[in-house]
Amino acid sequence: MSRIQLEGVTRQFGSVTAVDDIWLDAEDGDFLVLLGPSGCGKSTLLRMIAGLLPPTGGRVLLDGRDITHTPPRGRDLAMVFQSYALYPHLSVARNIGFPLRSRGWSKSRIKAKVQEVAGVLDLDGLLDRRPKELSGGQRQRVALGRALVRDPGAFLMDEPLSNLDSKLRATTRAEISALHRRLGATFLYVTHDQVEAMTMATKIVLLNNGKVEQVGTPEQVYDEPASVFVAGFLGSPAMNLLEASVQATDGVLSVRGRGFHLPLGIDADVPSRPVTLGVRPEHLTLTAPRDATIRGRVHSVENLGSEEVAHVHVGEARLCLRGQRPLGLRAGDPVPLTAQPQHLHLFDATSGRRLAWETTHATASAPAATSA
Predict the structure, then answer these.
(1) CA 245 → CA 24, 158, 193, 220, 346, distances in Å?
(2) Which of 149-153, 160-164, 279-283 has the lowest mean pLDDT?
């Protein structure tokens, strides 16, 4: 196993900064997923860790050793590419064993090691085939086998499932997760697919425009998004985000906007301030009209099989309600909704960063808003 640390890693292409001052720590045995939209810098960052691209600034450490300028072959890291990068003229066995031949291993040692890895990846019956005779999922396992055969300190994977169909992608996700648990090795995995990140990662690093937006477990980044960007990126549908203001009425805080008025369950007397209100679609609930804290009108309803998603106009904004089918809603229906205070998220209207409410020492009942 290996620990990978990044200290202020930066990469510029001319006047464009693709990766901007990244500090990260992938501990031994982590399954760390670099997640973000296309162009956010995640693949560039992975290539710098692998040694395929030199950083403009900062350091890359492997188990405390500076490897910033160490060639790829000296880093004890195995890379799995999006394109598989298999040799079409070689059998599965020879593809898997290729890194060992380049190291001068004997034929008997290579054969034994290839058989061992093939057993782990369920490739025993495919060793004599060529890549063109394999399915996409089988090719992906061969690419993994070629990385695994080296017994590397860590695995680097650059969107390895993006070429697979949705059903095969789900199966291969489970296989990679099981492999990680079995090996206990460090995995660094690049993807733009939030489902892959949420189901596989022990730790997610969410990138935006070359910067780290948030680092945390899947539960932390989903339940406590650090910014409007994180809130809007994770979730399907994504978190509802509405322009609002926090106000105190008779010493009780609430968040208000056009078509909604939601109590926060906090006793305080603070000045009004603009915020962005966030609430997940699954945390909105239908209620009686007299109990509604959000009032809207249904625009459309999507059938997802076991669930439905209703798109609702609230003022000039549109939000999504997700629940078990049938919701009993149709386009044009007025819809009374509510949400519990513990499911509400507040973000600064200017910076987009998450807000937390902390009780001051001076007055126990007067919280102060602070960026989290």
Answers:
(1) 35, 42, 33, 25, 10
(2) 160-164
